[in-house]
Amino acid sequence: MMQAKKCSDDRYFAVGSADSLVSLWNVKELLCTKTFSKLEWPVRTVSFNHTGEFIAYASEDPFIDIANVQTGRSIHQIPCKAAMNSVEWNPKYNLLAYAGDDKNKYQADEGVFRIFGFETHN
């Protein structure tokens, strides 16, 4: 296990592992209900949004994947030039902060911190 996070409503917890999979577990039954398999490298970071509707996860792959927890479908990928070390949702809004080992314009290692946000329409 590389990373574990609990959903804000206590229904699920997610485990990111060295085999590149993120598994979603039902807290009450302790059963794996879904597996997210978009990554090819060991999972470095996992985070649920404030409602528990979305999960974001990243590794050394060139993207951060955001998926719908209920369907398991990827809804968006944020392109990255290098490994991401941390993703964390805002506690009230669909804003995702992420930090990693990005590259500058000369392809030298340079730390990066960015915020990604989107709106949901009901």
From TrEMBL:
The family database entries (Pfam families) matched by this protein are listed as: ANAPC4_WD40, WD40
Q: Which residues cross the membrane?
A: none
UniProt entry keywords in alphabetical sequence: Repeat, WD repeat
Which GO biological-process labels does this protein carry?
mRNA export from nucleus
Say if the entry is tagged with keyword Repeat.
yes
Any one GO CC term of this protein is:
THO complex part of transcription export complex
- Domain Anaphase-promoting complex subunit 4-like WD40 stretches: 38-90
**Database matches in InterPro entries:** Apc4-like_WD40_dom, Tex1/THOC3, WD40/YVTN_repeat-like_dom_sf, WD40_repeat_dom_sf, WD40_rpt
Q: Which PANTHER family match?
A: THO COMPLEX SUBUNIT 3, THO COMPLEX SUBUNIT 3 THO3
Family per record: Belongs to the THOC3 family.
Q: What is this protein called?
A: Anaphase-promoting complex subunit 4-like WD40 domain-containing protein
Q: Which gene encodes it?
A: ga16199
